[in-house]
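User: Could you go from structure to sequence for me? I need the amino acid at each position, not a summary. C-alpha cells:
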C-alpha cells in the first residue's frame, strides 16, 4: 500500500531540513544517544555505599519530596 506524505517547503527551510528513516533505526539512534557509564573500583564502591545509605534513609522516612532545591534546609 502506497502512502503520500506532504511536507511544507517553508517548514523544511525553517527547520533546516527533514530526516525520514525507519522507526527501528530511529529507536536505535535514541538508545545509543545517551552515553552509558560504568564505574570501577573505589568509585563504584563509594557510589554503592551512597545509594545504600540513601535507601536506608528513605525506608526510615528520613527523606522528603521537594519540587526545587530551594526547599532544602
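Assistant: Here is the amino acid at each position, in order:
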Amino acid at each position: 500500500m502506497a502512502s503520500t506524505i506532504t511536507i511544507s517547503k517553508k517548514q523544511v527551510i525553517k527547520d533546516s531540513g527533514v530526516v525520514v528513516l525507519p522507526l527501528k533505526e530511529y529507536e536505535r539512534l535514541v538508545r545509543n544517544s545517551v552515553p552509558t557509564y560504568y564505574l570501577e573500583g573505589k568509585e563504584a564502591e563509594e557510589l554503592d555505599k551512597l545509594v545504600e545509605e540513601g535507601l536506608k534513609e528513605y525506608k526510615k522516612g528520613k527523606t522528603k519530596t521537594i519540587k526545587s532545591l530551594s526547599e532544602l534546609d
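One structural detail worth keeping in mind: Residues 55 and 63 are 9 Å apart (CA to CA).
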